[in-house]
């Protein structure tokens, strides 16, 4: 039994519990499908193992809370290959953990916790509410220096954000943390409500103005939201460093903000949409981001606008 309401709440918010619950539900679905398809039932060994692991999972969570490298003045911890085995089990295909592996260029976890503490402190200085969002939604920062991504997070291991070795400055790390925390917020909302109505239109592929990568409507929504969030964040960094406008952080933040705004202008100035009556694709020849690919129609309902207008509408407050 779980002793107290406080412990129950802490357990229900923990990423290891989220992973455990997802694995249990997947196994129940697999057994149900197996039983209905051949009438013989499915092997329940894996489910039994998961149920037996529940008590051990609680112990591991307690050990992590007591021993893991914690960000200064925060509940967020930094881990590497020592992530709970349940979280490791649901991480692929984002990343595949290999027993005993450790990147030759990796830094000690304690060092990364110190660096991430500085990044989180700076996030709080630039935008206190954003730091609160990070600490509310992120429990674990997983450091994976040999990963092929700069940063990553997925609904199936919500509460965990992964950081690779692609950040070249504290400001880059701030961006990665804010970026992935924004995804966490959308994951939380999507567990309570449907973000995108299902259907053929939802699976149409659209080109992201920032990278050229193709995404369906759900993926495009995530990207658009994240870049609005980052625009607001970098605008605050620019404002906070305005007294030292020649500083490296000010220059980097201003350049990053401009790049993001150019992409948002392209996304809101739709270059293709579909006429519901005829199903015909219509092209906007004014878009410089077409390249034969489709862009999401009127993202978030914004009217076509310039970078300057976006700066006024999205950034300035």
Structural class: alpha/beta
Q: Mind telling me the C-alpha Rg?
A: 22 Å
**What gap, in angstroms, lies between the N and C termini?**
50 Å
- Oligomer classification: single chain
Based on Cα principal axes, name the global outline. Answer: globular
Series of secondary-structure elements, N-terminal to C-terminal: HHHEEHHHEEEHEEHHEEH
How many domains, as an integer?
2
Low-confidence stretches: 36-40, 271-303
Q: How many β-strand stretches?
A: 9
Q: How is the largest sheet built, in terms of strand order?
A: 1-2-3-5-4
Q: Describe the biggest sheet?
A: 5 strands, mixed
Organism: Actinomycetospora aurantiaca
Protein name: HEXXH motif-containing putative peptide modification protein
InterPro entries: AKG_HExxH
Biased composition (Basic and acidic residues): 275-293
Structure description:
With 317 residues, the protein is an alpha/beta fold. It folds into two domains: 119 residues, no CATH class; 120 residues, no CATH class. The protein is 52% helix and 8% strand. The chain has a five-stranded mixed beta sheet with strand order 1-2-3-5-4, covered by helices on one side. Helix 2 runs antiparallel to helix 3, helix 5 crosses helix 6 and helix 6 crosses helix 7. The radius of gyration is 22 Å and the shape is globular. It starts with a helix and ends with a helix. About 12% of the residues have low confidence.
Précis, in short:
The protein contains 10 helices and 9 strands.
